[in-house]
Specification:
Blueprint (H helix, E strand, L loop, with lengths): L2 H7 L8 E2 L9 H5 L27 H10 L3 E2 L9 E8 L5 E7 L5 E4 L5 E4 L11 E9 L5
Antiparallel strand pairs: 1-6, 2-7, 3-4, 3-7, 4-5, 5-6
Length: 147
């Protein structure tokens, strides 16, 4: 997808957008946030996308929170960069259904995978509205390289 098409979907991302990979349908935002760029992670439909065993295959915030908890994440208060931690943010639509996950990088900016499209770096507020809706949860875990 071209930069112009991404900006058309997310007008607020224009100033902060950096496309960091070519399009690839092999993985999505959840897999990317979980550190897996080899599989498409999504709870529905069963037997089509990867979803870790033991996590309810429900398209609900509680399933996404449970998923990231198994990866060492815990709830946190907000988007501010915290030295020694990596953060994720979960977006949802107006009904509270999860739509997207982004991950904070060491510089404090955010990165995410746009479905089957590109990986991008962006400001967090750049993805608000549009198809991803609004922020519903921040989570963090200690960085693997932090002591």
């Amino acid at each position: 997808m071209s930069r112009a098409k991404i900006v058309a979907l997310f007008p607020s991302v224009k100033k902060s957008l950096f496309i960091s990979s070519p399009e690839t349908p092999g993985y999505n935002c959840v897999g990317f946030a979980a550190g897996d760029d080899t599989r498409w992670w999504w709870p529905q439909p069963p037997n089509v996308a990867y979803w870790p065993p033991g996590i309810p295959r429900a398209l609900q915030l509680s399933s996404f929170v449970a998923l990231f908890a198994t990866l060492g994440y815990e709830d946190c208060d907000g988007e501010e960069f915290e030295d020694g931690f990596e953060k994720i943010v979960i977006f949802a639509d107006a009904n509270g259904t999860p739509t997207h996950v982004a991950r904070q990088v060491a510089s404090g900016s955010w990165t995410s995978k746009l479905g089957p499209l590109e990986d991008i770096r962006h400001s967090l507020r750049g993805l608000l509205g549009g198809p991803y809706g609004h922020i519903v949860r921040f989570m963090r875990r200690r960085r693997q390289d932090a002591r």
